[in-house]
Design a protein that fits this description.
The complex is a heterodimer of chains A (255) and B (280). Chain A has a domain of 162 residues: P-loop containing nucleotide triphosphate hydrolases (Rossmann fold), CATH 3.40.50.300. With 255 residues, chain A is an alpha/beta fold. In chain A, helix 2 packs parallel to helix 5. Chain A is built from eight helices and nine strands. Chain B is mainly α. Chain B has a domain of 194 residues: ABC transporter involved in vitamin B12 uptake, BtuC, CATH 1.10.3470.10. Chain B is globular and about 70 Å long. The chains are: A alpha/beta (255), B mainly alpha (280). Chains A and B meet through helix 2 and helix 3 of A and helix 7, helix 8 and helix 12 of B.
C-alpha cells in the first residue's frame, strides 16, 4: 500500500457476534485528508472506528491501516490517536489535566516502564497544540465539556499520532465550542499533516471541513467530496428522512 | 504501649497490622478507582469455600483459600466481561455459593467448626512467625505487581475503553488486579478475617478519595489511613479486650465518616460556616 493511503478497506464486512454490522465496504482514506463518516444511528460508524483501532477483529475482507491489519500494527499502533464520543470516566477521578494527557504516553513508552521527562514534554506540547496549556493543573472533572474534549484531543495527539479517529467528538457541546473544535482539527490537518477521520451526526458542520464524505448505513452509500455528494435526496434515502441544510453548508467558512 | 509490646504475640500482631494496613490500602486505591468494591466483597467472602476445603482435606487453608479466591475472582471477571451476566449478579451468586460451600464443609469437619469465627473475623493475636513470613512474601509480590504496572493500572482505571484503544493489555491488567485482590484477601484472613478484609480493601482509599483530588496524595493518604487504623485498632483492642479485626474496621469507619464530613468535594463544613457567618 502506497504511503499516500492511510486506510484501505476492500470488501470489508464486520461482525458483532452473529450480527453483520458492516457489509462489503471498499474505500481508501488518503494520508493527510479529513474524512467525515456519516450515517444514521446503528449504521455501523462506531464499529468502523473500532475496527480501525483493532478493537473489533471479527471481519472479512481486507482492512489495512498504514499497510498492516490493525491488530498487527505493533509499535505503529501508536500512530493512531482516538477521541471517544464521551469518555465515561468518573468526574471525581483524582487526576489533573496533565496526568490525563500523559496517560496517552503510557502504551507507547512500554509495559512496566516509567514515564520520563520526554513524555511530560510531549504531553505539554500536545496541550499547547490544542490551546489548553493553561488547564494543565486543573482537575479533569472540573472542566467544561468543550475543555474536556480538547484535553482528550491532546491525549490522542501526544504519542506519535499520524491518524486521528474521533467518534462524535462534539456531542453535548455548544455551537461556539463545536466551531472551535473543528477549526482546531482543520489546523491539525493542514499544519501538521494529520489524517483525520470524524464520525458525526452533524452533516452540515463536518461538510464544511471534510475533504471526503463517507456515508454508510451498513453498506457504503456515498464516498465523495462534499461538493460532489450531489442532491440531498441520496442522503435522505440513506437516512430515511429529510436531510436539511446540507447543500447550504457545503462551503467552508471564510478565514 | 510499651507494656503491650512486651508480649511476643503483640509484637507479631503489630508487624502484621502495619503490613496488612499498608498492603490493603494500596490495593484499595485501585479497588476504589476502578469501582471494584463489590468485587472485593465477593472475592473475600468466596474465600471461605477455599479455606474450608483446606481444613477438610488437610491442605494449608491459605493455599486452598488463595487458589479458590483467585479462581472465583477470575470467574466473576470472565462472566461479567463476556456480558453473559451482570457483574453484581455474578458476584452475588458466586460469593453466596462459595460461603455456603464453606459452611457445609466446615460443618462436615466437626472438630474444626470452632474455627469458623476466626476465619470470618480473624485473630491477629494468633499470628505466628510463619504467618508473618507468608504475609510479607505475598505483600511483596502484590506490591511488586502494582508498582511495576502502576501507570497502566491507573490508565485502565481512568477509562478502560481508551486504555484498550491505546493498545494496553487491559485483560492482563484487569485479571492481574483481581488476582492481587484475591491474594490480599487470603493473606489477611488471619489478621482481620474474611468478612472484615473487604472493609480494608475499600475504606482506606475511600477516606483518601474524599479528602484529596490528586491520585498521588490519594495513595499516600490511603496508606496512612490504613496503617494508622490498623495500629490504632490493635492498641484499642488490647486495652479494651475486644476483637482486634473489628476494632480496626471500626477505627477505619470513624475515619471515613470524619473524612466524609470534612470532604472538600462536598465542602459541608465550609458551607455551614458560611451560613453561620451569614446568619450572624
Amino acid at each position: 500500500m502506497a504511503d499516500t493511503v492511510a486506510v484501505q478497506a476492500r470488501d470489508l464486512s464486520v461482525w458483532l457476534g452473529s450480527h453483520k454490522v458492516l457489509e462489503d465496504l471498499t474505500f481508501d482514506i488518503e494520508t493527510g485528508s479529513f474524512v467525515a463518516v456519516i450515517g444514521p444511528n446503528g449504521a455501523g460508524k462506531t464499529t468502523l472506528l473500532r475496527a480501525l483501532l483493532g478493537l473489533v477483529r471479527t471481519y472479512e475482507g481486507s482492512l489495512l491501516v498504514f499497510g498492516e491489519p490493525p491488530a498487527r500494527l505493533g509499535d505503529r499502533r501508536h500512530m493512531i490517536g482516538y477521541v471517544p464520543q464521551r469518555s465515561d470516566f468518573d468526574r471525581r477521578f483524582p487526576a489533573r489535566v496533565l496526568d490525563v494527557v500523559m496517560m496517552g504516553r503510557v502504551a507507547c513508552r512500554g509495559l512496566g516502564r516509567r514515564l520520563t521527562r520526554e513524555d511530560r514534554e510531549a504531553a505539554l506540547r500536545s496541550l499547547e497544540l490544542v490551546g489548553a496549556l493553561d488547564l494543565q493543573d486543573r482537575p479533569i472533572g472540573e472542566l467544561s465539556g468543550g475543555q474536556q474534549q480538547r484535553v482528550f484531543l491532546a491525549r490522542a495527539l501526544c504519542s506519535h499520532t499520524r491518524l486521528l479517529l474521533l467518534d462524535e467528538p462534539n456531542t453535548g457541546l455548544d455551537v461556539a465550542s463545536q466551531n472551535r473544535f473543528y477549526e482546531l482539527l482543520h489546523n491539525l490537518q493542514h499544519q501538521h499533516g494529520l489524517t483525520i477521520v470524524v464520525v458525526s451526526h452533524d452533516i452540515a458542520k463536518v461538510s464544511q471541513f471534510a475533504d471526503r464524505i463517507l456515508c454508510i448505513n451498513k453498506r457504503l452509500h456515498i464516498h465523495a467530496a462534499p461538493a460532489d455528494v450531489g442532491e440531498t435526496s441520496l442522503l435522505e434515502q440513506v437516512y430515511g428522512c429529510e436531510v436539511e441544510q446540507f447543500a447550504l453548508a457545503r462551503q467552508r467558512p471564510e478565514g | 504501649m510499651l507494656e503491650m509490646l512486651s508480649y511476643g504475640f503483640m509484637q507479631r500482631a503489630l508487624v502484621a497490622a502495619v503490613i496488612t494496613g499498608a498492603l490493603c490500602s494500596v490495593v484499595a486505591f485501585f479497588v476504589v478507582l476502578k469501582r471494584l468494591s463489590f468485587v472485593g466483597v465477593g472475592v473475600s467472602h468466596s474465600a471461605l469455600g477455599g479455606v474450608a476445603l483446606g481444613v477438610v482435606t488437610g491442605v494449608d487453608p491459605l493455599i486452598t483459600g488463595g487458589l479458590f479466591a483467585a479462581l472465583i475472582s477470575w470467574a466473576i471477571g470472565w462472566v461479567s466481561r463476556k456480558g453473559n451476566l451482570s457483574e453484581d449478579t455474578a458476584i452475588g451468586t458466586f460469593f453466596s455459593a462459595s460461603m455456603a460451600l464453606g459452611v457445609v464443609l466446615l460443618g462436615l469437619a466437626r472438630t474444626y467448626t470452632a474455627d469458623l469465627m476466626s476465619f470470618l473475623f480473624g485473630n491477629i493475636l494468633a499470628i505466628t512467625e510463619a504467618d508473618l513470613i507468608s504475609l510479607a512474601a505475598v505483600s511483596a509480590a502484590v506490591l511488586l505487581f502494582i508498582g511495576v504496572f502502576f501507570k497502566e493500572l491507573l490508565t485502565m482505571s481512568f477509562d478502560e475503553e481508551l486504555a484498550r484503544a491505546d493498545g494496553l493489555p487491559v485483560g492482563f491488567l484487569y485479571f492481574g488486579l483481581l488476582t492481587a485482590i484475591a491474594l490480599t484477601v487470603i493473606v489477611t484472613v488471619k489478621a482481620v478475617g474474611i468478612v472484615l478484609s473487604s472493609a480494608l480493601l475499600v475504606i482506606p482509599a475511600a477516606i483518601a478519595f474524599e479528602l484529596v483530588k490528586d491520585y498521588r496524595r490519594m495513595l499516600a493518604v490511603s496508606v496512612a489511613a490504613g496503617v494508622t487504623a490498623s495500629v490504632a485498632g490493635l492498641v484499642i483492642s488490647f486495652y479494651l479486650d475486644v476483637a482486634s479485626g473489628a476494632s480496626i474496621v471500626l477505627v477505619l469507619a470513624l475515619l471515613f465518616f470524619a473524612a466524609y464530613a470534612l470532604s472538600p468535594r462536598k465542602a459541608w463544613v465550609a458551607k455551614a460556616a458560611a451560613r453561620f457567618k451569614a446568619a450572624r
